[in-house]
């Protein structure tokens, strides 16, 4: 005799079976996406893809470093001429635009040789090395942090700024010697040795606080304008750089610069170029904003050193620096009274030319990153997810 199953039981079993089938259909796309993520992670773990990512990072770092070094080397002639204009107290040509700068620079180079526009470049790197080394030594024996983030406390930020200020104080006499090498004429001086700025810096330091019979200012009078300029330059550069990075990575084109996107998911342009561009903007804003203060600082450092510079009016001949400033505030007043307000901006055209060269280098760097991003792509992208009907 055949046993019949209740009709209700069949319906319940059928309904449960249909329910499970519906859940599987709803979660099918999610399972497929999860499988794609697993496959991408596995593919990233292969030696070939890992070597591509490593090569990408190494190449990106190398291109960025080469760009910074090239910018420093190519812009040095502009720095030399700008500083000479800033300390030339009796000039009548202010060189506020880059066209007159090129004309005079070519005349000086034609009269004194190719290397004259690159004088003092090695001493600049030596001074930068002294400042970095002093920061490291001070940070090693104190609790002053060398780096700060958005999560750092106010106390940590204050200690970090104090660390920067102390390193600038240590570097001040060596910066003065490097400045003299940069602006002095090759006609009236011998070619300095690589470490002459270190020797001359110690000589200047030995006169700390001693009474002066000439117009040479003691080092302690140079500390205030040097530290003030150095800290303001660092703060303005850091603030502008941070704002630029936020705007690049969280702006309208968020799909291009996503701040939450993993590093391996970005191409080389998205990974390295924003840092270079933000640094460019930070230095540009700080140099333009602090140009008058830089002019005053350079004049105080050069005063009384018997430095002879090239004639920036015509590009031929030399002249001696002979000024009598007692301090930073008096220097501001005398420059504005005798040379006008734009006397604080002498050589500004050389700064414009410098950043035009820097912008051209950034453009070339961007093109290189574009080419390398195509040849060394990041991890493979997952196929686009199909929409449910």
How far is it from the N-terminal to the C-terminal residue, by CA?
A: 49 Å
The low-confidence runs, each spanning 5 or more residues with pLDDT under 50, are 1-20, 254-265, 379-383
Say how many strands there are: 2
Radius of gyration (CA) equals 31 Å
Topology:
Layout: H1 7-26, H2 28-44, H3 47-74, H4 76-87, H5 98-112, H6 121-141, H7 154-183, H8 196-206, H9 219-250, H10 268-289, H11 291-302, E1 308-310, E2 318-320, H12 328-339, H13 348-375
Antiparallel strand pairs: 1-2
Helix pairs in contact: 3-10, 3-13, 4-13, 5-13, 6-7, 7-8, 7-9, 9-10, 9-11, 10-13
Give an overview of the whole structure.
It is a single chain. With 389 residues, the protein is an all-alpha fold. It is built from 13 helices and two strands, in the order αααααααααααββαα.
Summarize the structure.
The chain has 389 residues and is mostly helical. Helices cover 67% and strands 2% of the residues.
What are its keywords?
two-stranded antiparallel sheet; 389 residues; mainly alpha; globular; 13 helices
């Amino acid at each position: 005799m055949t046993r019949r199953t209740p009709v209700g039981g069949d319906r319940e079993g059928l309904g449960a079976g249909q329910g499970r089938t519906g859940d599987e259909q709803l979660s099918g796309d999610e399972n497929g996406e999860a499988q794609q993520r697993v496959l991408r992670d596995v593919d990233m773990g292969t030696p070939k893809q890992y070597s591509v990512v490593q090569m990408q990072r190494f190449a990106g770092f190398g291109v960025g470093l080469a760009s910074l070094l090239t910018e420093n080397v190519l812009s040095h002639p502009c720095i030399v001429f700008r500083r000479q204009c800033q300390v030339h107290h009796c000039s009548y040509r202010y060189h506020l635009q880059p066209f007159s700068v090129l004309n005079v620079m070519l005349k000086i180079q034609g009269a004194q040789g190719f290397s004259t526009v690159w004088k003092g470049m090695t001493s600049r790197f030596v001074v930068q090395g002294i400042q970095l080394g002093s920061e490291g030594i001070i940070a090693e024996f104190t609790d002053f942090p060398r780096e700060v983030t958005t999560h750092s406390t106010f106390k940590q930020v204050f200690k970090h700024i104090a660390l920067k200020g102390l390193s600038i104080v240590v570097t001040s006499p060596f910066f003065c010697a490097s400045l003299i090498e940069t602006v002095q004429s090759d006609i009236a001086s011998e070619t300095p040795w690589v470490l002459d700025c270190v020797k001359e810096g110690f000589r200047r330091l030995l006169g700390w606080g001693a009474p002066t019979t000439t117009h040479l200012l003691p080092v302690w009078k140079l500390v205030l304008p040097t530290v003030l300029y150095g800290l303001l330059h660092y703060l303005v550069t850091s603030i502008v750089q941070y704002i630029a990075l936020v705007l690049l990575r969280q702006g309208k084109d968020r799909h291009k610069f996503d701040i939450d996107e993993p590093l391996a998911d970005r191409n080389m342009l998205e990974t390295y170029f924003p840092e270079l561009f933000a640094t460019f903007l930070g230095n540009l804003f700080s140099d333009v904003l602090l140009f008058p203060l830089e002019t005053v600082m350079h004049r105080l450092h050069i005063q009384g050193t018997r430095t002879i510079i090239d004639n920036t009016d015509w590009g031929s001949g030399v002249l001696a620096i002979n000024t009598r400033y007692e301090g930073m505030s008096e220097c501001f007043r005398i420059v504005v009274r005798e040379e006008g307000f734009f006397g604080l901006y002498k050589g500004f055209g050389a700064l414009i030319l410098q950043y035009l060269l820097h912008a051209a280098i950034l453009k070339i760097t961007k093109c290189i990153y574009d080419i390398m991003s195509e040849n060394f792509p990041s991890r493979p992208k997952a196929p686009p997810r199909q929409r449910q009907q």
